[in-house]
Design goal:
mainly alpha; translocase; NADH_UbQ_OxRdtase_su1_CS; transmembrane; cell membrane; globular
Amino acid sequence: MSLAATAYGLAATLPTTLPTTENPSADFSDTPWWLALIKALGIFVYLLVSTLLVIWFERRVIGRMQQRPGPNRNGPFGLLQTLADGMKSMLKEDITPANAEKVIYTVAPLIAATMAFVSFAIIPVGGTVWMFGHHTPLQVTDVPVAVLLVLAVASVGVYGIILAGWSSGSTYPLLGGLRSTAQVISYEIAMGLSLVAIFLYSGSMSTSAIVSAQSSLWYILPAFFSFAVYVVTMVGETNRLPFDLAEGEGELTGGFHTEYSSMRFAMFFLGEYVNMFTVSALATTLFLGGWQAPPLVSAINDNMFGGGWWGLLWFTAKLWSFMFVFVWLRGSLPRVRYDQFMRFGWKFLIPITLAWVVAVAFIRGAQLGFLGDSKLTFAGRELSVATVVIVSIVAVIALAAAWIWDDRRAARAAAEDEAPPEEIDPFAGGYPVPPLPGQRLAEPTPRLAAARQPVLTGSTTGSTSSSTAKEEDHG
């Protein structure tokens, strides 16, 4: 079954009316400003504690994968190891390079760290709860274009990496910053396109409205292809293995943070892990029902285990499932080449996601326009839903075939360019070079004979002189 046909079958169970009235945004009318500040502080503490735990969790899990214990000395099961590393970063000497732009060199890690925290403000981590005498949702704020706000803040966060590379006054950090720029721009396009299907299904860009729209069916099922694309792009956005190309040690000596030390380096470290939580929280919100309980639990008793503070538990469990995927990838996959990574983004992810968005738009247009009718009016003509699905399937297959053809054509061109000549002159570069497999030496020419003659003469003269010296010694 094709992607578009599967999506249509799953989408048939979704509401066929625009969900802007059925799935309203969160109600903040009973939330005073001081309560919003308390929730913001709670989110800040939640992310800091989660960062401390995930660093320990990553070391322990990868240690098990590689048959070694991981941290197990500081505290029970090594739980205090991350705290000890943080204290070490605070006490280390802070060195500023002589050629660095001092102000930007200091501001860059602050930008990278703070932008990741800002994005979490629009994520609903739970349902409506009773807190300090007020009914308030477990969310700092919400706006009609909340998902776009996350993408915008992520774009600003990459300025920290770019400015860090440029202000260090060194070559390798600059190259790491340039790599990060191209990488983030490329994969933000595919990430944004993958989320368009969610907007079409939910009829809203508000995170709380999207969570409400998934009360009957999580969007990971009808938008499964968007979910797969988002998972790839979120790993590329956070500079994690196998896509940590902005800090490749083999060719960049550490990348954009090579010249940083002490707490400035720790800021980049903190920003990377908080950003992992942010993109994972967005995936939980858009594809896994957000804070809502799993279907089996909600079927038992949704009122008891599905709302209020229980939502924070389900949200955290889903969030950490994505964090395990991050750790799993780091312990399993090697780093890809930069040209492979960029080619995959521009020549495959973006075109195929565009085709997917067009297919979903046709399907949702048919559902919302006719409320179950099997006809769709387009340019004054009636088209059946089956026709729309078939056209979408053909478009996706044609795009995939074009990509495969372009891939093979590029491979043939590269093979022709790299094919060694059948006949070589071993002295063409001034030094004798042995032939490669499939090559043969050129026929002797006056030039080749002249090149060989001094070698033969020198060896003969040397052996004659050596014989003469031995005879004189014997005499």
